[in-house]
Design goal:
The complex is a heterodimer of chains A (about 140) and B (about 240). Helices cover about 85% and strands about 0% of the residues of chain A. By secondary structure, chain A is mostly helical. Chain A has 2 domains: about 70 residues; about 70 residues. The two termini of chain A are about 20 Å apart. Chain B is α+β, with helices and mostly antiparallel strands. Chain B has 2 domains: about 90 residues, no CATH class; about 100 residues, no CATH class. Chain B contains 6 helices and 7 strands. Chain B has a 5-stranded antiparallel sheet with strand order 3-7-6-5-4, sandwiched between helices. Classes of the chains: A mainly alpha (about 140), B alpha+beta (about 240). At the A-B interface, helix 2, helix 4 and helix 5 of A face helix 6 of B.
C-alpha cells in the first residue's frame, strides 16, 4: 500500500517538476542575465516555493517506493549536506527579510512578515527535513 | 507647443460641461505627466498630455494648479510653515483655478461611499491595476555622491531579489523608499508602494520613479493573499 502511494506521489512529483521546469523556461527563470523586479520575484517563488513543493512530493514518493535503495550509505553524507544547506538558505532568507522589515519599514507588522516568510520557505524546510530523515534513517534502525 | 495659461483664453469650465467629478477623472488621467524636481516642485509635460488627448482647458487648469502648488511650496519654505493651512495665497491670476475653486465650494459630495466593483482594491488588482501606467522616471540631477544622497532622502538599496539578483545581496544601483498610494479605489498604506531611485555607475546622476507596487514583497505584510504574484505581474506589464 505504501509503495503504491509512493509511486503515485513520485509520478505526481516528477510531472509537477517537469511542468515547472517548462514554465520556468518560458518565463525567463533560468535566463540569469535577465534582471528586474518581475523576474526576480518569479525566481524566489520558483526556487523557494514551487520547486521545493514538487521536490518534496517526489522525495516523499521515493522514500515510500524505494526505501531500501535510498538507505544506501553512499547517499547519506550528500543528503545530510543538501539538507543542511537548504535549512541554512531558508533560515537566511527569513532573517534577511524580517531584518529588512525592521530596518527599512520600522518593524511594521513584523510578526506577520515573519509568518509570511515562514509560509514561503515552509516547503524548503519540509524538504530539508525529509532529506535529513532519509540521511539518518538507517543509523537509527 | 506648451500652453501658456496667462495668454490663453479658455471658456468657463461649466460652459464646457465640466463638473467636479469629470475634472477629477481628467486629473487622474494626467498623473503620468506630472513629475517632481529634486526640490519637490512639480512640472507638467504639456506635450505628452496633449498627445494623450487631454483637452486644452483641463491642461490649462492643471498648469494653474501646479503653478499655485509650487508657489505654496515656495512660500511655506520661506516662512518655515509646516502646515499648508498657514499659507493662504490669493487665487487672483488663476482664472480657471478660481472657477474650479468656486465649483468645489458649492459641491456636495455624494452621501455614503460609492460601492466599488468587487474586483477592485485600493492597492490594485489584475483588472484594475494601480497605477495602470508606467510611472515616469524623471532625471533628478547630478550629485557628488548619488548613493549617499539617495540614502539621505530615505531610500535604501533594494533587496536583491526585487531587482532580479541574488536574494542575499542588495541591488547595487536600485533603491527603494516605501510609501502609501492614493488611487480612485482608495488608499493603499505604506510600504506597499515605493518610489524607485536609480543612479549611474559613476555614482553621480539620479533618476526617481514615483509610485509603483513595492517589489520587496517579503519585507512587508501583504494587503491580500496573492499580492506577491500580482506585484510580479504588475512589474512585468508596466
Amino acid at each position: 500500500m505504501a509503495q503504491r502511494l509512493g509511486k503515485v506521489l513520485l509520478g505526481l512529483g516528477i510531472l509537477g517538476t517537469i511542468s515547472l521546469l517548462v514554465w520556468g523556461w518560458g518565463n525567463g527563470i533560468f535566463a540569469f542575465g535577465d534582471k528586474g523586479a518581475s523576474v526576480g520575484i518569479g525566481r524566489i517563488f520558483f526556487f523557494f516555493f514551487y520547486l521545493p513543493i514538487a521536490a518534496l512530493i517526489s522525495a516523499s514518493g521515493l522514500v515510500l517506493s524505494f526505501p531500501k535503495a535510498l538507505m544506501a550509505a553512499r547517499y547519506r553524507k550528500s543528503l545530510l549536506i543538501t539538507s543542511s544547506l537548504m535549512a541554512l538558505v531558508a533560515v537566511g532568507f527569513v532573517l534577511t527579510n524580517v531584518s529588512a522589515n525592521v530596518r527599512f519599514y520600522g518593524g511594521e507588522n513584523v510578526l506577520g512578515v515573519f509568518i509570511l516568510n515562514l509560509v514561503i520557505v515552509a516547503p524548503l524546510f519540509l524538504l530539508s527535513g525529509v532529506l535529513f530523515f532519509i540521511s539518518r534513517y538507517r543509523s537509527s534502525r | 507647443m506648451p500652453l501658456r495659461w496667462g495668454k490663453h483664453q479658455f471658456p468657463p469650465l461649466k460652459e464646457e460641461g465640466y463638473t467636479v467629478e469629470t475634472i477629477t477623472a481628467e486629473f487622474r488621467r494626467m498623473d503620468p505627466f506630472v513629475s517632481y524636481d529634486k526640490e519637490g516642485y512639480q512640472r507638467l509635460d504639456v506635450v505628452r498630455a496633449q498627445q494623450a488627448g487631454i483637452p486644452d482647458v483641463i491642461i490649462g487648469l492643471a498648469q494653474e494648479v501646479i503653478e499655485y502648488q509650487n508657489r505654496m511650496r515656495e512660500v511655506a519654505r520661506a516662512r518655515h510653515a509646516k502646515d499648508v493651512r498657514a499659507v493662504d495665497l490669493p487665487l487672483e491670476g488663476y482664472p480657471l483655478l478660481s472657477e474650479f475653486d468656486a465649483m468645489l465650494r458649492k459641491y456636495q459630495p455624494r452621501q455614503g461611499v460609492e460601492p466599488l466593483a468587487p474586483d477592485t482594491h485600493p492597492c490594485g488588482t489584475y483588472s484594475h491595476p494601480v497605477p495602470n501606467y508606467t510611472p515616469p522616471r524623471p532625471y533628478i540631477g547630478w550629485y557628488t555622491n548619488a548613493h549617499s544622497t539617495l540614502l539621505s532622502w530615505g531610500f535604501h538599496q533594494t533587496a536583491g531579489y526585487a531587482c532580479g539578483g541574488d536574494p542575499f545581496v542588495p541591488c547595487e544601483r536600485d533603491y527603494t523608499r516605501g510609501r502609501g498610494y492614493w488611487s480612485a479605489y482608495g488608499y493603499c498604506s505604506s510600504p506597499r508602494f515605493r518610489d524607485q531611485g536609480t543612479r549611474d555607475q559613476a555614482n553621480h546622476n539620479i533618476w526617481v520613479q514615483y509610485g509603483e507596487p513595492n517589489p520587496e514583497i517579503f519585507s512587508y505584510w501583504w494587503p491580500y493573499w496573492d499580492w506577491g504574484w500580482y506585484v510580479r505581474w504588475w512589474h512585468r506589464h508596466y
